Amino acid sequence: MLEREFLLKLAADYGTPLFVYDGDMVVERYNDLFRFIPWKKLRIHYALKANYNPALLTLLRDAGAGLDTVSPGEVHLALKLGFSPEKIIYTANNMTDAEVEEVLATGVVMNIGSLSRLRKLAKSHPGLDLCLRFNPDVRDGDSEKTMTGGDLTKFGILLESVDEVLEIVREGKFRIVGLHEHTGSGLQHAESVYQSMENLMRIATKANFPDLQFLDFGGGFKVPYRPDEKRIDYVAMGAEIARRFREFCQERGEELAMCFEPGKYMVAEAGYLLTEVNTLKRNRSRLIAGCNAGFPQLIRPVLYGAYHQIWNLSNPQGKPEVYDVCGNICETGDRFAEQRELPEIREYDILAIGNAGAYCYSMGGVYNLRSMPGEVVVSRGRVISERPRMSSKELADRILAECKSK
Ligand code: LLP
After folding, report:
1. pLDDT at residue 405 in the model
2. Active-site annotation holder among 131, 291, 326, 330
3. Nearest-angstrom CA–CA distance, 14 and 8
4. Which of 64, 123, 150, 283 is 20 to 30 A (C-alpha) from 316?
5. How far is the CA of 205 from the centre of ligand 1 (A)?
6. Which segment of 186-190, 214-218, 262-266 scores lowest on mean pLDDT?
7. What is the pLDDT at residue 1?
8. How far is ligand 1, taken at its centre, from the CA of residue 373, in Å?
9. Over 90: is that where the pLDDT of 406 sits?
């Protein structure tokens, strides 16, 4: 964790609410994966939907990372930041024709997850290099809403459709350079990772695409959110991943590249949302701590029932009390934590909400017309990048400027 005093200083210097990201931890996470998964041709495509902060992306670019992108906006941001097209894979779902053209023009390889889009491409763009996304048929993840395998989800081509795929690939004269699957976010069981790999490797063996360069096993590496949650033994998991992939490559007779697309694993624990408590209220049995941020700025507790650790930075030794930690949005469900024991909170205390690096700012909005918090990235004890919070007046002006009367 970043030092308490340092976080308090950032809160004082920049004001709250404020996201703080530890850039060094993100780079360390990236490098760790190469230690954990002993495979020479390992490629890590960071899933930038988790956090698209340009300074973090620049650190990862310099470390050698590739990117998993899901919209033309993400592709353009990546290219503008200097990621070369070969380092980027495009895995959108329900793509429009216009979006396909826009991405193809950039030279980024597309990952196709539906027979319908594959058929359309066979007519419009025969001969393309493509990656194919299969549905691994394994259900796992930290929330029903983020499991992407199985027939209840919209993602990927079913494993049993492989013959149909082969027919369209022949028709379209595609060069299939990659196969892909993504099982879910926050995978709870190592076994799910292995099972999904096996299911995809079976397809690769059965279909024997001659131009295959890589197999991409998606993201989903879990990190602890609760203080008592065990950390996965990634050394053991990485060794098993490499063992299984080696077996597959030996059978195939060539060493392919292996890709993963972690988002949460890379950035979740590197981020904090600093927020100030401005109102304490005792509602009969409930003690409510009212903060100057709300669910549009950190939506995971409300959307997924996710647990985020909270620290009272200003009074760490305070006598423990049980709080509902609430936001400043006009909705009852606007809570970061319910009935959470925390050191005594006083008005003007600064709280840090943990694991705020992944899917917090990037999923944010300005509901109730409260601006998104500012963001700072720190490295080696100093701020290397800052994005100031938009003032309320600037936000109002932006809305008026965007909407033109006719
Ligand atoms: N690859 C694909 C194709 C994905 O759809 C995703 C995430 C990832 C990689 C990265 O997954 P990760 O390593 O971050 O678990 N908003 C949710 C998570 C949604 C994940 C969406 N796709 C949350 O806050 O838990």
Report:
1. 84
2. 330
3. 10
4. 283
5. 27
6. 186-190
7. 87
8. 22
9. no
pLDDT confidence tier of residue 91, bands split at 50, 70 and 90: very high
The pLDDT tens digits of the residues spanning 374-405 come to: 999 999 999 999 999 999 999 999 999 999 88
Contact 85, 79 (CB under 8 A): yes
| 331, 353 contact by CB (below 8 A) | no
Measure Cα distances from 38 to 4, 174, 261 in Å: 36, 31, 16
What is the C-alpha separation between 355 and 370, in angstroms, rounded?
A: 22
Residue type, 56: L
Q: Which atom of ligand 1 is nearest to the CA of 264?
A: 14
Closest of 57, 50, 63, 97 to residue 76, by C-alpha = 57
Ligand 1 atom nearest to 221, measured from its CA:
13
Q: Which residue from 132, 261, 267, 360 has its CB within 8 A of the most atoms of ligand 1, so it is best to mutate?
A: 261
Ligand 1 environment, Cβ below 6 A = 47, 50, 68, 91, 146, 182, 185-186, 218-221, 261-265, 300, 304, 359
Q: How far apart are CA 193 and CA 384, in angstroms?
A: 36
* Protein residue with its CA nearest to atom 7 in ligand 1: 185
Residues pairing with 41 in the sheet? none
Which residue has 């100031």 as its token pair?
388
Domains for the chain: give ranges and CATH numbers.
Answer: 23-264 (3.20.20.10), 268-396 (2.40.37.10)
Whether 330 is a known active-site residue: answer yes
pLDDT at residue number 57: 98
Instruction: Give distance in angstroms: CA of 103 to centre of ligand 1.
Output: 21
pLDDT at 256: 98
pLDDT in tens, 311-367: 999 999 999 999 999 999 999 999 999 999 999 999 999 999 999 999 999 999 999
Nearest to 351 by CA among 337, 363, 368, 339: 337
- Determine the distance separating the centroid of ligand 1 and the alpha carbon of 149, expressed in angstroms: 12
Report the nearest-CA residue for atom 20 of ligand 1.
185
